[in-house]
Specification:
about 90 residues, alpha+beta, TATA-Binding Protein, 3-stranded antiparallel sheet, 2 helices, 3 strands, about 45% helix, elongated
């Protein structure tokens, strides 16, 4: 089955989160740890993660509020876990 990747503009519900990390290294670690989830093709959401030095910008878009909220909660938990690992290094 070939899934079409929707553009961010096709969705009506959007959230953008800007995360400031202690260092470029920590931002890169967090970004790379989320890469497997970002790369998944999903029917109901579009996820984008970009890095600008020590800043990460996570954009989540969906047509349904409950799907947007679920994606937001999942990504925030994964970010929190990755951030905890960075602090332990």
């Amino acid at each position: 089955m070939n899934k079409q990747r929707y553009q961010m503009t096709n969705f009506t519900k959007k959230i953008t989160i800007t995360l400031y990390c202690n260092s470029i290294k920590n931002a890169t670690i967090i970004k790379e740890s989320l890469k497997p989830e970002i790369d998944k093709e999903l029917d109901q959401t579009n996820i984008q993660l970009t890095q600008d030095t020590n800043m990460l910008i996570l954009s989540i878009a969906s047509m349904q509020t409950n799907v947007l909220r679920a994606a937001f909660n999942s990504y925030m938990r994964w970010i929190e876990t990755a951030s905890s690992v960075c602090q332990a290094l």
